[in-house]
Amino acid sequence: MSITPKTTTFTDRHIGVTTPQDLERMLGELGYDDLDALVDAAVPADIRAADALDLPAALSEQGVLEELRRLADQNVLRTQMIGQGFSDTITPPIILRKVLENPAWYTAYTPYQPEISQGRLEALLNFQTMVSDLTALPIANASLLDESSAAAEAVLLMRRGNKKKGDAKTVVDQNLFPQTIAVIRGRAEALGFEVEVADLSAGLPEGDISGIVLQQPGNDGLVADHSEVIAAAKDRGALVTVVADLLSLTLITPPGEQGADISVGSSQRFGVPLFFGGPHAAFMAIRKGLERSLPGRLVGVSADDAGTPAYRLALQTREQHIRREKATSNICTAQALLAITASMYAVYHGPSGLRAIAERTHAHARTIAAALGAAGEAVRHESFFDTVVVSVPGRADEVLARAEEAGINFRRIDADTVGISTDEKTTDAVVSTVVGVFGAGDPDPASPGDLAFDAALTRESEYLSHPIFNSIRSETQMLRYLRRMSGRDLALDRTMIPLGSCTMKLNSTAEMESISWPEFAGIHPYVPEHQSRGWRTLIADLEARLVEITGYAGISLQPNAGSQGEYAGLLAIRGYHEANGDAERDVCLIPASAHGTNAASAVLAGMRVIVVSNADDGTIDLADLDAKIEANAGRISAIMITYPSTYGLYDADVREVCERVHAAGGQVYIDGANMNALVGLAKPGEFGGDVSHLNLHKTFAIPHGGGGPGVGPVAVAEHLLPFLPGDPVTAADSGAYTARDGVPVVSTLFGSAGVLPISWAYIAMLGADGLTQATKTALLSANYLAARLRDHFPILFTGRGGLVAHECILDLRELTQRTGVTAEDVAKRLIDFGFHAPTLAFPVAGTLMVEPTESEDLGEIERFIEAMVAIRAEIEQVAAGDFTLETSPLRLAPHTAAAVVSSDWDRAYSVEQGAFPVPRLRVDKYFPPVGRIDGAAGDRNLVCSCPPPEAFEPAADAMDGADR
Ligand SMILES: *Cc1c(COP(=O)(O)O)cnc(C)c1O
């Protein structure tokens, strides 16, 4: 007898349900003979793709790493002195390995469930404290997407925060980075307000001004005293934003002390690799009074039900989930993992370490400036931090070429000017090489501690005095701090995260591995094209494969979150209508079921949102659609639909909806966040879409990072190609960031390029068959869950054949009415079973949306079912009067270790029911560090920086008391 060896493919490892027995059992439960029969029943025939995906054959894990190595080797690693908002930095190895490369951090979800997120919330609070201290502004968020879009958000915040009428203009100093000016301009064009670029060192221009934007240090490296222009702006009733370099603020008078209202910038140089332009965490700090208009996530301090201080996201009512088109921004996924990395860098170095890095960086720049000056070169400014700009009339290209030959990249500002930026990695040897490029001899090193700028600009105030930045010095301490923080959280490395709409699937190690290779991570976004061939090949490849998967004509990878893809896609639609002379088309139809970012993005793109109702069965109400189209005849710009819908349904009449909107002259935007139910089965570009964004951090395996990074590529049909975001290639070649034909850029270059190898590897390893199998399995698992839970919790919507798509909504409203137990109680009780909650209250209040994804095995799915069934039994105990709602394990969930080992346990249920409601928990038990958190209290009394250690003492006393 011969045994045919079966090689395990990556598909077998990515997909959880692989054994024929499991498959049979699941299909049997659903009453189908094979997987294809189930898929045929669930997915409408008229949207099915005719052919299988045309993709290269699947590679093994080893094969993909070899291929990625080949691509990485096509990039040329040079000493990066280009600057322009991106500085090389050293990621401390412990942070690289224990945070950036650690699934306990990178596979976590956004901390909406604060009880299981205390570790990352503390890290993000450290980030806020760090930014607030360095900018000298009292409130900072965590985080924004990139420096340029953060500056654009600041402009919008100044307009909201200023009582002036809408026609007051925004004035931007000409000494901002060109990419920042380009992104601000794009936002202003969409919203129809005026932006004037002026030389603010010559004073304020005439006219009514809502806000001004300055940059410190400037685009040309100048460290300027802004106090006068800031005072003048305030006299004129304008708000002031300063785009600042965080590292420089350890030495330079911070924006808050100069009178600025807002400061924004990038935290990249705090240990986050260049990543060919992103992902990096941007920051925004504000003065008091603007907090309710602040965009992005804000971590605040509150308390749990035992009075223990606890962290949570604060002021959520500003955000798109709740406020939709009236939200402060469209930002949903931000840059949590990178903000955490930057905050840990500050914890690791402490204030004196950061200051030493800044002084060294500054000293190297001064050495270069002095040596070049002595050699007769025209150094532009005497007051600078890390960037020395040199006039080299007609010689810029020649100087750049010589520098490159010597292994260094300078910045080409124009044909007559070059910029040289130092950073944490700059050494004496690098400095010698730099001056050698100009033919100058060995320089006299400047002494660290001397400063090249005025005494008035020298920072006197303290920063990072909180103990967290001053108590962790040894690597052992750091190692344990990182472990302690990650241990407080539930991420995918411990449990299924069945969050509907978020697609928390496997982020495999082979997919992740290459992103920190220096040949990828160490490339500056503005290197010459011939130094980034590997990157460009990988990006072109990924683009082509995503185009094949979606059925569109082209795609831009620039948007660094789904929300930014929406914005870019809607701008493409807007540009198209304008080019056709249809500028009056400004109505965006959005179904009531839509994700909050849809409405917020439409507003940012200058559109009016009109809501279309959903019918009782969850589909779009066609009669209401017709009515809204008719009432806005000639004004319809677009409809935004999610497919399958956020109700977990393949609407059978999607083609009909698309046709009616097209007939009315509108464009169809299909939100592709749910592509995990379509890949390999149907293509939005073929069944009616004109444009879609994808969430590579959902469907295409980029980890969620505890709330970012993300990539939200925008894909378009042929006729919208000319309106994709500004062409980054042109930008890199010219050094100036000019958008093509007035098409706005939405972020920097290729956005979050650094994480693209993950999606590239995912597609390469699964191939056409694996991708399609993943989709089918996602459908199977969701339908199996729905079928098994249906008798315990009604499934809110089902489509053809009583089936759902890749997720399902459990409706608790009737149970809530009968017993008082809420969906939130269930979400919190799941923590006691070791599970992360499903999506709570979206898209329907009072429900839970469950998405198992294809990566969960049947055992884990059964454990989840077991937990939900046990919880349902507890709900019946409330109904039966075994305990009241207030004294039930549901309302008192989650249970901390402190609560269940207390010697005065006097609850209406046993300790065992509280802590070990199912037997398996006796061996593997996660205890949340805090109990149920009072969110409202935290909002009433807003604290957004690290509380003093004394704040934690009462709880510690109570523990001591219990001991004795
Ligand atoms: C996640 C999601 C978005 C927003 O994507 P982000 O990357 O978080 O900005 C938009 N629409 C739907 C349906 C989503 O699930």
Secondary structure blueprint with pairings:
Layout lengths: L9 H5 L5 H11 L4 H8 L18 H12 L6 E2 L12 H8 L2 H4 L11 H18 L3 E2 L6 H15 L7 E5 L4 H14 L3 E4 L10 E8 L10 H9 L3 E6 L17 E5 L15 E5 L12 E6 L4 E5 L6 H4 L12 H39 L3 E2 L7 E5 L4 H10 L2 E2 L1 E4 L2 E5 L6 H10 L37 H13 L21 H5 L4 H4 L11 H18 L3 E3 L5 H18 L7 E5 L4 H9 L3 E5 L9 H10 L4 E7 L11 H10 L3 E6 L18 E4 L19 E3 L11 H7 L21 H34 L18 E4 L1 H7 L3 H10 L6 E2 L6 E4 L7 H23 L16 H4 L10 H5 L17 E2 H6 L12 H11 L1
Parallel strand pairs: 1-13, 3-4, 3-5, 5-6, 6-7, 17-18, 17-19, 19-20, 20-21
Antiparallel strand pairs: 2-8, 7-8, 9-10, 9-26, 11-12, 12-15, 14-15, 16-22, 21-22, 23-25, 24-25
Helix pairs in contact: 2-24, 3-24, 4-24, 5-12, 7-12, 7-15, 8-9, 12-14, 18-24, 19-20, 24-27
Describe the fold and architecture.
With 964 residues, this protein is of the alpha/beta class. Among the domains are: 111-334, Aspartate Aminotransferase, domain 2, CATH 3.40.640; 514-762, Type I PLP-dependent aspartate aminotransferase-like (Major domain) (Aspartate Aminotransferase, domain 2, 3-Layer(aba) Sandwich). Helices cover 37% and strands 12% of the residues. It is built from 31 helices and 26 strands. The strands form 6 sheets. It has a 7-stranded mixed sheet, with helices on both faces. The chain has a 7-stranded mixed sheet with strand order 16-22-21-20-19-17-18, with helices on both faces. It has a 4-stranded antiparallel sheet with strand order 11-12-15-14, covered by helices on one side. It is globular. It starts with 9 loop residues before the first helix and ends with a helix. Residues 728-739 and 956-964 have low confidence and may be disordered. The structure holds pyridoxal-5'-phosphate. Residues 332-333, 501, 561-563, 595, 597, 642, 646, 671, 673, 695, 710, 712 line the site of pyridoxal-5'-phosphate (PLP).
